[in-house]
Structure formats: structure tokens, C-alpha cells
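Q: Here's a chain of 402 amino acids. Please give me its 3D structure as C-alpha cells.
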Amino acid sequence: MAHGTPRVSVIVPTFNRSRFLAECLRSLLAQTLPPAEVLVVDDHSTDATRKVLAGFADQVVTIRTTAQLGKPGAVNLGLEHATGDYVWVFDDDDVALPDALARFTDALERHPECGFSWSPWFCADTLADGSLGPVTWETRAPDIATLGFVPALLEHNFLGGAALFARKRCYDECGGYEPALIRSQDYDVAIRFARRYPAARVEGGATFIYRQHEGVRGSSADRFAAWARFGKWLEYDQRILRRLRREMSLGEYLPPGHDVATSQRLAIIERLTLMMERMLLDEALEDLALLAQLPRQEPLTEAERRPVRRIAYSDPWYGCGSLWDHPRFTNRVLELAGRSETVRDIRGEALHGFVRGVRSHGLSRLRVAVPRAVRLLAPSARTRPDFRPTGVPATPMPGPRA
């Protein structure tokens, strides 16, 4: 716990974002609780970034890399220079609300047992002149009391970007950003912290504005357009979830009030739906087989139905279809349903989920739901090897990578 005025180090990694950087820095320097230091890590920018930073020369510390490190390397370099009790990693195109640091630190000062604090955030578009437009929406926090913090975070990253504010010791003990992750680095850190430390939610709502724009993303080694970011998120989220599958015990997938001794099936179902959410076909097939082999073959409980409903009701947010569209997956569901009551119930719950989706979203959902229902009811119509449902990428479904 910090003594006296909390000392906060803000780390801003930047690469060719001169258009947005000044507005970002002004928001950080206008905090009601001033940061002890703002460390801007210029990752070998080639635009007007130097000129922008010259205007803040007496207010921020600029660290320039001699070769491009990528965002993970830039953040880690900033961590090496950080002297504060707390660290806030802040993207160069976002804007902090004036009381953000005061609210983040207050939550941790009041809860010394917690390693990090967190908040929702606002989203806003970028206007034609490059300025930030009006707020369009605010993220919503999940029901952590019901789901559990780590299971909720695995379902959806509600700690994206600057939503996470941590004690410096958390980075010292858990390590910084993973250099191999071009995308989803913040998600990886958030999961590592959440598995190790309790968290404190800040009072009030959003603490920053997430800027949506059409600028390119990534480092020079892996640049990609704004429209391609969802595919990149999927690629790197898959890497993270594969690693977690190797590292995590089954008990870590369970909501509060359950233990793996009595809720093994629920744990496998929770993991199955997470693998489906990330389009991890082989891993999902493995969990289906495990469920079919369990000695306990009886109707699903309400807790077991919830994750199946979720994955059937709506598609993964990456915009590349669902495993319900993949014949290897649906054929395996049908095969195992013939001898496993558990898998048979999963199939039934999925069909109900398709119907609920249509009732909520209308005809737009009907076009997707009907072919999926047919696949779960009539496998013989789609056994040809070239089958590819509408909306599913022509490239092979992601599987294990080296």
C-alpha cells in the first residue's frame, strides 16, 4: 500500500500515432490526482511523434527505442523505468477521464488485499478532423458474483486496455507483457493477475474513453488494417486459451460455490464452451469426448445449461462464424449424443438456444439458426468433404499451431 500521496506511473507506448497522441497526453496531465510520471515509450515512430512530444518535453518522460520492439516490448521497457507504487498502461489513442487516477488508487488504498483495480470504459468514434467524437456506449460488467472473476474474464475480456490499474509489485511478481503477443497482450496480463490477486472495482462508471478509428494497427513486423483486428484478436486469444488449457486446473473454470469433486461435469462444460467461443475445434472435440465418457450420464443441471445456452444463443464476437457451422463438430455431437445423455442434452439445449436467438433477433438470426438446427438433426445431408456453410471462412478452421 502506498504511503502519503499515491505515486502513479503512467506508461504510454506509442508508434506512429501523432494524430491522437497530444489529446491522450493532455488527458493524463489533467488528472485530479496528478501522475508521478508519464513515461512515453516512442517505439521507433516515423511520423510526427517527435514533434508532438517536443510540446510536452517538460511534462512527460520520453523513452525512445533504438529498434522497434512492438507494444509488449515497449510496455516492458516502460516498466523498467517506472518508479511509482502503481502502474497504469494507457494506449496512445485513448483519452482518460479527469478523475480516473483518483478513483483507481482510492479503490486500492481502501483494499490493500487487492492487487489491481478495474473499471468499465466508454467508446467513442473519431471525427473527420481527428478529434474524439461523442460517447456512443459504455461497457457493462459481468455478474462476477454468479460467474466468478476468472471464469467471467475467460468468457469476455472486461479488463481491456486501460480498464486495469495495478500495483507495481503485480508486474514485478507476475512479469510484464508477453513479447510474442502482437494482440491481446492486455488480456493475457489481466488473466495472469486475476488468477493470482483479488481485484477491486472502482466507484462509479467509466474511467477512460476508448477511441474507435480506422488507423492501422500492430508493429512494423505485423501491420494490419482496422477491419482485420477481430481476426487478429481471435488468433492471439486462441494462443492464450490453449496455454491456459494446459496450465489451469478444472476447478478454476468453476463458478463460486462449486468444487471439482462434485462438479467435474460442469467444469468440463464451462471449458468446452470457452473453447467453442475461441473457435478451438480440436480442444472442443476433446471436451465433448470427455463428457461422453463420464460415468455420470443424467440430465444437465441448470448451472450446466447456462454456458451451453450462451454459446448457442449468440456467436463468438470475432465475426467468423461458430463451431455450430463446422461439420466435424456437429457430426461428433450427433455421434456422441447417440450414446451419451450428457451430449444429447447439450444438443437439445443448443437447439433451444437457436430458437431463443431467433425470437430475440428476428429474421436476421433465422438465416443462421435454421442451417445449424438442420446440421444437428440430419447429418446425412452434409457429409461431403467440401461442405462449407455460408458465413464460415474458406480457410481451414483454426487448429493446433506450432
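Q: Can you summarize the key feature?
A: The domain at 8-222 is CATH 3.90.550.10 (Spore Coat Polysaccharide Biosynthesis Protein SpsA; Chain A).
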